[in-house]
Amino acid sequence: MRRFLKFIPPILFFLLTIAIKTILSPLDIIPGFLKDSIDLVGSLFMIVAITWLLIVFIRTIKNNILKRFDISVTNNLRFRKLHTQYNILEKILVFIVFVIALGITLLQFDSVRNIGISIFASAGIAGLILGLAAQKALGTILAGFQIAITQPIRLDDVVIVENEWGWIEEINLTYVVIRIWDKRRLVVPSNYFLETPFQNWTRTTAEIMGTVFIYTDYTIPIEALRKELTRLLESNKYWDKKVNVLQVTDAREHTLELRALMSAANSPDAWELRVFIREKLIEFIRREYPQCLPKTRISLKEKEQKAVS
């Protein structure tokens, strides 16, 4: 029942428009010039009412369809694709309805109609000027169409754009809104995602790998640290039990570089897991093997040692 309440205001406005055109216009007591004004106002109101009804109808249909696809569930790739497509399709249809309504409205005025005829007479020059002026705007709008079809991004995708990590919150015809992790909003034009490289962490799946780098002395017992990593992962709810690896990835002048590799169901879980593992591994080394923390060694020659003694 609630979904039909949205139609009441435009329907009442439509009925008011019909009343103006059918009741006031035929009255003989109204002067001729005033009848023309009433007819014009009635026609304009009719256009607004029909446009309003069409927009409400389009949005109601979209909302009723998307209501069946909840993007708050864990495995929501298909649902996010549908939300992205239907939201952009709604904006395209509303834009088309608005443009048509605006064109019909302008045709109600004789002066505007005459101006339009004179413009079309010089369409070659005017078209060239308008084409150059609107090139960037049209390119952005066409990029919105392309995003809807090819879907390099979808609603709720996790992306890194301009070195900022966040989620796709809105996809419009001309711009995209990214909700950054600290609740800021990054707004970028639609064509950015077609012309500039960016990272999409949930393009095919929400699963993601997390890494933690630890730097220790050469004397660290790798196997003991590997067992501790396994114990920590098994005790953490954010680990999806798929990847558990500890490797020496570099041997530098004074330290070893150890990389702990783990997997999680999504990027927020991976972040929590990485922070936990980093803290606990450092705590384990400080508690069990404090001598294996990074250090700088100085070796004195035998003569120098005697001189010092």
What would your notes on this structure say?
- The structure is a single chain.
- 55% of the residues lie in helices and 18% in strands.
- The longest helix has 35 residues, at 32-66.
- The chain is of the alpha+beta class and 309 residues long.
- The radius of gyration is 33 Å and the shape is elongated.
- α4 runs antiparallel to α7 (135-150).
- The protein is built from eleven helices and eight strands.
- The chain has a five-stranded antiparallel beta sheet. It has a three-stranded antiparallel beta sheet with strand order 6-8-7, with helices on one face.
- Among the domains are: 2-118 and 139-146; 208-292, Alpha-Beta Plaits.
Tell me the overall shape. elongated
Low-pLDDT parts are: 119-123
Main sheet: strand order:
4-3-2-1-5
Query: Which structural category do the helix and sheet elements fall into?
Result: alpha+beta
Q: What is the averaged pLDDT score?
A: 80
Give the biggest sheet: 5 strands, antiparallel
| Distance linking N and C termini | 96 Å
Helix and strand element order: HHHHHHHEEEEHEEHEEHH
Give Rg in angstroms.
33 Å
Strand content is 15-25%
How many β-strand stretches? 8
- Supply the number of helical segments: 11
Helix content: 55-70%
